[in-house]
Specification:
Blueprint lengths: L14 H13 L16 E7 L5 H13 L6 E7 L4 H14 L3 E4 L8 H9 L4 E4 L13 E4 L2 H18 L8 E6 L5 H17 L2 E7 L4 H14 L5 E4 L2 H13 L14 E6 L3 H8 L5 E4 L5 H12 L7 E3 L4 E2 L7 E4 L2 E6 L3 H12 L12
Parallel strand pairs: 1-2, 1-3, 3-4, 4-5, 5-11, 6-7, 6-8, 8-9, 9-10, 12-14
Antiparallel strand pairs: 10-12, 13-14
Helix pairs in contact: 2-10, 3-4, 5-6, 7-8
The structure holds beta-D-galactofuranose (GZL).
Length: about 375
């Protein structure tokens, strides 16, 4: 099924150019080509097992893969949506093996339980690329490489922003009463964001009241907020492990007559979040309804394509590639944070920046990689 080619590997620096090319392809209907598609012998065939469609992040991630891996770019992409069930992902991977695809890409819903099916893919001689969340395996030869986010770093950055906010506003750390609405239990994003908060709360002396299940969805975020207000009446910071949970939290707080804001010792409740994909989240950030967002970049399509291009040209690829991500807040007075001696700037947001960001998202090209990863 493989097309021998001498396509040059995509260098990160060229992403924007390819992104703009992707834009022109999109205009020509890249993702849904109606053109008579030649047999898959002419294409590199990729089987992609996607977690589901639980969040805006996930939708952007799927779109990015479709834009980067399409017939116009020399690929045939087969996407299987697992509806957040690992059993569906394992079935999909086995189906890809049966079909004899050239590559398998997995966005694993949770970290454990992958050894058997990864060994089957390895035995079939099909390289597996892991994207986004990680798999927990002892034998790293079971997958070719991984590209995704450092979720614990995302959390440490958001927590350091909160620590800077408290210091800047002379808020005693013991007056920070925080509840974590966790994402899908066992997902790397949940594990990292939970660990980062636990560590920061211990280090800064915050009162971490509890951790509740939010499943990365708006509906669950809405539902559990009422339980939080009932069980933890002194809560003044709600830490959401993704924006969709935060959307539900904000609606529930409004329905409960609570005020969202930064006066957390004066009765207001602060909301923190992760992703920063949907413009709704950035508009809430600009309105001060979400105080700080740890970016989680969903656009792995160009990165996966660069990896496969390299592999097709027998070039080496890094085993693990972390994508660079920003921290967003429109609160005045905190322009950067210091984490263990490394400085990270805090990015503000305005309508113009948001428009630019959404344009890049729409063509799947938004990457801020500086590393020459592949
Ligand atoms: C993060 C990704 C998470 C997002 C959520 O890489 O796995 O899953 O943060 C999504 O929005 O549901």
């Amino acid at each position: 099924m493989r097309k021998k080619n001498n396509r040059p590997a995509i260098k990160p620096a060229k992403y924007l150019m390819y992104g703009l090319m992707a834009a022109s392809l999109l205009l020509s209907g890249c993702a849904n080509s109606d053109a008579e598609s030649p047999g898959s012998d002419d294409y590199v065939v990729v089987g992609f097992s996607q977690v589901g469609a639980e969040s805006d992040w996930r939708a952007a991630n799927t779109e990015s893969m479709k834009t980067a891996l399409c017939e116009e770019t020399g690929y045939k992409l087969i996407i299987e949506d697992a509806q957040q069930k690992q059993s569906n992902q394992i079935t999909a991977v086995r189906s890809f093996i049966q079909q004899g695809v050239d590559y398998i890409v997995i966005a694993p819903v949770t970290e454990v339980g992958w050894e058997t099916v990864l060994a089957e893919a390895k035995d079939a001689g099909i390289p597996v690329i892991i994207v986004d969340r990680m798999v927990s395996v002892n034998d790293y030869s079971l997958f070719k490489c991984w590209v995704g986010s450092d979720f614990k770093l995302e959390a440490l950055k958001v927590c350091e922003w909160l620590n800077s906010f408290a210091k800047t506003n002379h808020i005693d750390s013991r007056d920070i009463h925080i509840v974590n609405i966790q994402g899908t239990l066992g997902a790397s994003a949940q594990i990292g964001r939970t660990e980062g908060l636990r560590e920061s709360a211990t280090k800064n002396g915050w009162d971490l009241l509890g951790e509740v299940q939010g499943e990365f969805t708006k509906a669950k975020g809405y539902e559990v907020t009422f339980e939080i207000l009932d069980k933890y009446p002194n809560v003044n910071v709600i830490y959401c492990e993704n924006d969709n949970e935060a959307f539900g939290v904000l609606e529930a707080l409004e329905a409960s007559g609570k005020t969202v804001g930064s006066d957390i010792t004066g009765g207001e409740i602060m909301v923190l979040s992760f992703d920063g994909v949907k413009s709704d989240a950035m508009n809430l950030l600009m309105d001060g309804k979400i105080a700080c967002i740890g970016e989680c970049n969903p656009l792995h399509g160009p990165r996966v394509r660069a990896i496969i291009d390299s592999l097709e040209n027998n070039q080496p690829v890094d085993k693990l590639t972390y994508v660079d991500e920003e921290v967003f807040s429109t609160f005045e007075g905190i322009s950067n944070i210091d984490l263990n001696g490394k400085k990270y700037s805090i990015s503000s947001m305005d309508d113009e920046k948001l428009l630019e960001r959404q344009k890049l998202f729409s063509i799947g090209a938004y990457t801020n990689e500086t590393s020459d990863a592949y």
